[in-house]
Amino acid sequence: EVRVIQSGAEVKRPGSTVKFSCTVRGYTFVDFSVHWVRQAPGRGHEWVALINPEEGRTVYSAQFQGRVSVTADASTDTSYLELRSLTVDDTAVYRCEAESPRAGLFWGQGSLVIVTS
Amino acid sequence: DIQMTQSPSSLSASVGDSVTLTCRASQAIMHYLAWFQQKPGKAPQPLIYAASTLQSGVPSRFSGSGYATEFTLTIASLQPEDFATYFCQQYNFYPVTFGQGTRVDIK
Question: I need a labelling partner for A18 at 20 to 30 A (CA). Which of A75, B25, B52, B60 fits?
Fold first, then answer.
């Protein structure tokens, strides 16, 4: 059984940085591409970034380009998303989605970040 | 960006009914379409990937079909636990984009 385990909730000040982790268990990590998606209160899903751990390839949404970084550590089966220069509009649940052409797609439980002064 | 349009936005149905939800892509996305079920405050649960492949562990009353721009999710014989919001996701092009969801509630 594939499990996607994310880090816990955070409260941040405007202008600060948040870093989330996402660990994939139960399948070969490098078989997956890892997407990061956010959902703000009352809004739909918004794609942020992708990393392919095997290739080291990253793709970023133009909306976040320049203030987001995604990395992966194959030794711990973990991907990380760092979002900088936070504003109140970044308040959302951030989820990672592991995508495998063989196994399908799997979502983590989400990491809530609240940005407040 | 690829626009994903779901219809209807909501529907009411009874336990035992069969329902079909539609997702349309603004450009051809081959078979790179997934369906998810989401309940309030919970993570999305995957149902279908690659347009028609049932995710492991998902009941066989769920089925998906389609290719390119037109896709459907059918739930045969609705069960009480199926009342939820369903959304589609295309993952052929970046940015990955999502439909706005179809809410299925009890008539």
Answer: A75
Q: Please name the residues in contact with A95: beta carbons below 8 A apart, sequence gap of 6 or more.
A: A6, A36, A37, A38, A39, A107, A108, A109, A110, A111, B43, B44
Q: Give residue A68's Cα distance to chain centre.
A: 10
Q: Please work out, in degrees rounded to the nearest 5, the angle formed at the alpha carbon of residue A24 by the alpha carbons of A32 and A71.
A: 70
pLDDT in tens, A61-77: 999 989 999 999 989 99
Q: How far is A16 from chain B (nearest CA, A)?
A: 25
| Interface residues from chain A to B (CB-CB < 8 Å) | 1, 35, 37, 44-45, 47, 50, 59, 61-62, 95, 99, 101, 103-110
- Pick from B53, B57, B95: which is nearest to A61 by CB? B95
